[in-house]
Amino acid sequence: MSLILRRWPAALILAMAIVAIIPSTKSFATEAAWARLAQGGYTILLGYSRTPGGGEPLRPDLGDCDKRKSLTDRGIQESRRIGMRFAARAVSINSIYSGEFCRAVETAELAFGRRDVETKAYLNSIVGGADPDVIPPELIAAVEEFYGAGNLLMVTHPALIKAISGTKPRQGEAIIIAPGANPGDKPRVINRLLLD
Q1: Which domain holds residue 158?
Q2: Helices 102-112 + 73-89 axis angle, to 10
Q3: What's the number of domains the chain is made of?
Q4: CA distances from 50 to 12, 53, 143, 152, 158 (A)
Q5: Rounded CA gap, 8 and 181, in Å?
Q6: Are the C-beta atoms of 26 and 170 separated by less than 8 Å?
Q7: Rounded Cα gap, residues 184 and 105, in angstroms
Q8: pLDDT in tens, the chain (196 residues)
Q9: Distances in whole angstroms, Cα of residue 154 to Cα of each of 7, 22, 28, 31, 39
Q10: How far apart (Å, rounded) are the C-alpha atoms in residues 76 and 103?
């Protein structure tokens, strides 16, 4: 019994050390991602912010935001915080692309400014029977053709981010990608960035 009691403090110290290391590892990973973005030349995939309810149909009225679901209050705040995090880090963004769905456009505009957002059909979600493993060739080409001192940011749907990264992103998580090994290959995931 006394042997167990003597070992217990050592086990407690070890457990506390592990708990202390885990958050700093996530923090270190996020710091490494910010450092990469400071170098420029990457593409950032960001999912839209929180919306009420479930999905919405692809057609008709795509882009008619008066008839579409918009972000929740929490989603609006989340979008603004994302923009503030990029501004606070002074990360250079050359171009901002968004899918045509209102929730993606609104996320991009709230975070980065209305005048800077270009909509791209290839950033719409993979729905309606489309193969979820097929990444639009236009997206691959955009990633391959991007060269700049800053970064390219794309706001899209989690389904498309999952097709590229292999995992569904968490709310407020961005995926940093670069061209694949060969022209036309699936983009490579470089890092993940926790924003919220």
Answers
A1: 2-194
A2: 40
A3: 1
A4: 39, 9, 26, 22, 12
A5: 51
A6: no
A7: 27
A8: 555 545 555 544 544 444 444 444 445 567 889 999 999 999 999 988 887 765 555 444 566 676 666 788 888 899 999 999 999 999 999 999 999 888 888 899 999 988 889 999 999 876 555 676 789 999 999 999 998 889 999 999 888 899 999 888 888 889 999 999 999 999 999 999 988 6
A9: 53, 30, 24, 21, 18
A10: 10
CB of 150 within 8 A of CB of 93? yes
Continuous segment of H or E residues that includes residue 98: strand 93-98
Token pair recorded at residue 118: 């270009």
* Cα–Cα distances in angstroms (integers) from residue 79 to residues 19, 117, 122, in the given order: 30, 14, 22
Residue located via tokens 């110290």? 13
Q: What is the largest CA-CA distance in the chain?
A: 74
Q: Is the dihedral of CA 111, 117, 121, 123 positive or negative?
A: negative
Number of H helices, E strands in the chain: 5, 6
The one-letter amino acid code at 32 reads A
Residue with tokens 């001192």: 149
Structure tokens at 95: 């171009």
In the block, which residue shows the tokens 């498309």? Answer: 160
Place of tokens 């149909």: 57
Say which amino acid occupies 73. D
Q: Which CATH number do you get for residue 68?
A: 3.40.50.1240
